[in-house]
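Why do we bother with a discrete structure alphabet at all? Because it lets us treat a fold like text: something you can write down, compare, and reason about line by line. To make this less abstract, here is a complete entry for HTH-type transcriptional regulator McbR. Read it the way you would read a sentence in a foreign language you are learning: slowly, and without expecting to understand everything at once.
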Amino acid sequence: MTGDDVVPGAGEQAADRVHATLRAEILDGLRPAGAWLREEEIAAAQGTSRTPVREAIRRLAADGLAEIAPRRGAVVVGWDADDLDELFDLRVVLEGHAAARAAVSGRADLDRLHELCDLMEALRTPPDYPAITRLNLEFHREVHRAGGRRVLPELVARVVEAPLVQSTIRRYTPARLDRSFAQHRDLVAAIEAGDADWARAVMTAHLRAAREVVRDAVTAESRPS
């Protein structure tokens, strides 16, 4: 019996910690599609019992990041070209709408958006892909929050936080990173100018460029070696 089993609330805290760790590892590509999530191995690595690990894996399945196979365990979910098209079609609609609303809502934290652009650009040479990925997600979340109070940000989060989407940045070449950063600056300028059409257009172009990056990678990964 571990401390997780005897201290009130400790099991829940351990499950939160394990879930956060596994989620970050999946989104950072450290646990790729098809990787098995072994309870015993994870429990040993995290210094906890298997009970909070089991709960953490259940949450990952609810997040759409893992699939539970009866009597076999759980595996990190894989994505194909059809998933890619569906996800990015949804992103264009939802995030384009969020950007347009952010430009006219008066809720955008422009100082924070500029700061996030600065932080990402400072990590450009050499590219720190995990850090840029986290900052990029925060940048998009700031736009979502400015575009909607609750429903829109929650709806967009399920699409934007899919592992296929979160793995986009680490697939960028330095030249594509530069273009992405420039589009971030253009988006902030559009929001600052209060121009909804401009903001929607920039976000749409930004996401279509990202789609091409991921499509190229998915196509390459699907070719027989």
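What the structure line is telling us, in plain words: Residues 180 and 209 are 8 Å apart (CA to CA). The chain has two domains: 3-76, 81-222.
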